[in-house]
Amino acid sequence: MTKPYGEKLSENKPVRCQKCGKSVRPKAPPLLKAKPTEIIEAEFVPPVETYPGKIVEVKLGATRGEGGTRGKSMVVGGETTPAFYTFEKPTPHQPVITLDVFDMAVPLAKAVKMHVKEVVGDPAAWAKLAVEKFEADMVTIHLISIDPLIKDASPKDAVKTVEEVAQAVDVPLVIGGCGDPVKDADVFAEIAETFAGERFLMSSVTRDMDVERCAQFIKKNGHVALSFTPMDLNLARELNHRLYDFLPREDIVMDLTTAALGYGLDYAFTNMERARLAGLMGDAELAHPMSSGTTNAWAAREAWLKMAPEWEPRELRGPLWEVVTALTLLLAGVDLFMMMHPAAVKTLKEVTRRLLNGGLGDANKFAEWVSKKI
Amino acid sequence: MSERETKGKVGVKELSPIDVYKLLPKTNCKECGEENCMAFATKVVNREVPIEKCPPLLTREYEKAYKQLKEMLKPAIKEIVVGTGEKAVKIGGKLVMYRHEFTYFNPTAIAIDVTDEMADEEVLNRVNRTAQFSFDYIGQTLKLDMIVVRSTSDNPDKFKATVEKTVEKTSLPLILCSLNSNVLEAGLAVAPKARPLLYAATKENWKDMAELALKYDCPLVVSAPNDLRLLKSLVKTLLAYGVEDLVLDPGTFLGDGLGDALNDFTMIRRAACKRGDELCGLPLLGVPMVAWMDRGEAPEEIAKWKEAYLAAMQIVRFADLVIMHSVDGWSLLPNVVLRQNIYTDPRKPVAVASGLKVFGAPDENSPVMFTTNFALTYYTVASDIENAKVNAYLLVVDTEGIAVDSAVAGRKLTAEKVADALKASGIEDKVKHRKLIIPGKAARLSGEIEELSNWQVLVGPRDSSDIPKYLQQKWQTQT
Questions:
Q1: Could you state, in chain order, the average pLDDT of each consecutive group of 10 residues for chain B (479 residues)?
Q2: Superfamily of domain B17-72
Q3: B346–A266 C-beta distance less than 8 A
């Protein structure tokens, strides 16, 4: 092949353009090399890493044989690699979904309400619906009525509600408080004792509660703590560290706060991704399974608001909002999802099952999309 | 390993302004608009300005330093431009694998398809919907980026006609899509200077595609579904052929292939960012549109739903460009918002200044409300108050950029903070009354706020879209 330019040009020096007289710098001419006629082979070595840390395994719920009354228990955690990096290690457990059940009527998005309106106000029936129809792995009973600013229901009342739910379904339970640090501790204490051995997940233990007291009754009665902190890894480390004085690491799941898609999901995602990577790199205080209050997706008005016609129907937009929030956090490493909409639950289950089972992407079929009429 | 390891290269995090400063002219000439070379170096390291903003650096004298700086600042993932002019789209250009390591650049481009066998009206309709898609979100307008023209006919004339119609209607960049190089060339003939992205070079057609890419100076997708060794081999071959702007397509799979789809993207991105594998250091293309294959009798909504969640997973996991079929608002909206979120700069808090904001011309009887300084909360509330056309005061309380419900749960929003903010704002001199409308989601703070501030608390709506109605019904009866 002849060189298209003079010798000097190959040094990439500026020359004067013959047409316009300006000084130009020619591109290094690729034509100087002979064009390949065959595929030049390259190797691909999967970039596999090893991690010094392992996410602790936590068992939720206890069967009769294990000291409780649940039909089965669920295990979360145990990862030795970032979320679904299955080219490194298999994912040890399919992420678990717990559905929200409220002990009284609460404001619900229309898209959610249409699925549960028959059972609002009847937590036992709601729990049954969640398990039998929506295939929830677990149920969260939110004890809204204990809030001193709402009904100020007593710990005994709360125990009664939990009893009804525990009778109605045999899945492991999450016990949701009202957010009042004093009242929640009192109610959790009563429930912990009444249902000793059940390994209920107490949602949640926060920094402004009497952490020592909570950790002690959780330990004594064989339950699990959900350690909740507001989007700050140092606070998460600190709270977990305080819990270690009383609780083994196997009794702690952490909640780093979930913000909705469009309303701070970026913070939640990065916070969780960092926590998981830190845990794998050996930061034991962050090497806990993660829970996400994915229901918070519905705090985004785009999830429930009636918008201009081009964004409708909200009956699809809403659950998709929850799905996208969930999948984003799934890829950050979340192990336990607290969710709301049946369609969102179904999709998350389908995706995690497929990811867990693996199998092959069909290389031959893929190219169909290029020329297929839809 | 055949490819160059970048062990000697400084990681993006370790790169300091001093490293850049050393290579600058150090004359403090201010031609770049900065006070001195050190200030410029700092901005360069933070990727706020390109080094080309330093005119002396582009002269002969600094040629060597310029080249060194270019190499030093080179992103792990090559930046590739598709299209020309104002609407041209940059893809790739990533410096890091995880956004918390720095920040992500060049948000995942979203491309919508038309085909050469669609009726003219449908092509037009889809092009228009793509070009006109627009959603206002925290002071930004979220849009779609490109049009894909697929050849379902495999007929060069039909393809040419559709490309021609498309470029007449839109200046959005194009992706021309056929595995037959004759068909692609027919399309290129009517858009020779448009610099579309060509799809795709495969192990069968790579030579013809390479010739096209060189002839028309276009970026080219390299496709090797689920075969990363072949993908890299093709990249190596095409680079040797002289085609420099390449985009990687390792395939997108649903169902049981989902794991492979994620793994392929992850392995390629890690090889590029963590192992310095330059053959992998190219933008990644995802095709969530595969959700429309094998649809059978299932309703379209199912395909739209699957396509949307597959796109979401790819936006999170490293895709620089995705090809989609649905143009429905409900299925696209979550993804354009997700993309904005993931590509927000984590180095900067998404917060607005706290303090008292004035709407309209409030007087001593006007309502006083408060909200948090999380940018999204603030803009949402502010736009709702503006739309209501009321005169009002809005107190923005510093919650460290956290939304109301999370801030209450996380104790970033407390009665003390609200009481202090009320005092500090000087509102007590501006209104006669002492009635504070608080967000419905902060209702639990009512009692304490009253106690600490001596203001009467009115619990407002849980969502600010109800503010106009609330003010109309409650505020007038209150005063």
A1: 36 80 93 93 90 93 93 94 96 96 96 98 97 90 98 98 96 98 98 97 98 98 97 98 98 93 97 95 98 91 98 98 98 98 85 90 94 86 85 93 83 93 94 95 93 94 89 73
A2: Electron transport complex subunit B, putative Fe-S cluster (1.10.15.40)
A3: yes
Query: CA–CA separation, B259 vs A352, rounded Å?
Result: 9
> In terms of residue numbers, what domain contains A322?
58-356
Radius of gyration of chain A (CA): 27
Would you say A199 and A62 are in contact if contact means Cβ atoms under 8 Å apart? yes
Alpha-carbon separation of residue A193 from A188, A196, B11 (angstroms): 8, 5, 54
Number of domains in chain A: 1
CATH at residue A293: 3.20.20.20
B232 Cβ under 8 Å from any chain A Cβ? yes
- ipTM of this predicted structure: 0.91
Over its C-alpha atoms, chain B yields an Rg (Å, rounded) of: 27
Asked if A370 and B179 come within 8 Å (Cβ–Cβ), the reply is yes
Q: Do A270 and B346 touch (CB under 8 A)?
A: yes
Task: Judge contact between A50 and A66, C-beta under 8 A.
Answer: no
- Distance of alpha carbon B232 from alpha carbon A314, whole angstroms: 43
Q: Is B62 on the interface with A (CB under 8 A)?
A: no
Q: Considering the domain boundaries, does residue A3 fall inside one?
A: no
Q: Which residues of chain B are within 8 Å of residue A302 when distances are taken between CB atoms?
A: 333-334, 337
Confidence at residue A157, expressed as pLDDT on a 0 to 100 scale: 98
- Whether A281 and A274 have beta carbons less than 8 Å apart is answered as no
Whether B199 and A370 lie within 8 Å, measured CB to CB: yes
pLDDT of residue A8: 39
Q: Look at residues A197, A366, A300 and name the one whose alpha carbon lies nearest to residue B253.
A: A366
Each domain of chain B, given as residue ranges in start order, spans: 17-72, 79-342, 355-478
Q: Which of A284, A274, A303, A201 is nearest to A241 (CA)?
A: A284
Q: Greatest CA span in chain B, whole angstroms?
A: 80
Using the structure block, give the residue that is written with the tokens 């918070």: A296
Residues 6+ apart with CB under 8 A from B241: A35, A36, B207, B210, B214
CATH class of B355-478: alpha beta
Cα nearest neighbour of A89 on chain B: B263
Homologous superfamily of the B79-342 domain (CATH): Dihydropteroate synthase-like (3.20.20.20)
A19 within some domain: no
The answer as to whether A12 is a domain residue is no
Q: What is the pLDDT of residue A20?
A: 58
Report yes or no: A158 and A191 within 8 Å, Cβ to Cβ.
yes
Three-state DSSP class for residue B319? coil
Considering only CB atoms, A42 lies closest to which of B2, B270, B340, namely B2
Cβ distance B402 to A47 less than 8 Å, yes or no, reads no
Phi and psi torsions of B284, nearest 5°: -105, 135
pLDDT tens per residue across span A230-258: 888 999 999 999 999 999 999 999 999 99
Measured CA to CA in angstroms, residue B310 lies from A230, A258, B199 at distances of: 29, 21, 20
**H helices present in B217-347, as ranges:** 228-241, 258-274, 300-316, 329-342
The answer to whether B255 faces chain A, any CB pair under 8 Å, is yes
pLDDT at B473: 86
Nearest chain B Cα distance for residue A310, angstroms:
5
Examine residue A131 and state whether it is found in any structural domain, yes or no. yes
What is the rounded CA–CA span in Å between residue A345 and residue A342? 5
**Structure-token pair, residue B431:** 């209104």
A369 at interface of B, judged by CB pairs closer than 8 A = yes
Residue A331, chain B, CB below 8 Å: the answer is: yes
The answer to whether B38 contacts chain A (CB < 8 Å) is: no
Q: Do B179 and A31 touch (CB under 8 A)?
A: no
The reply to whether B355-478 shares the fold of B79-342 is no
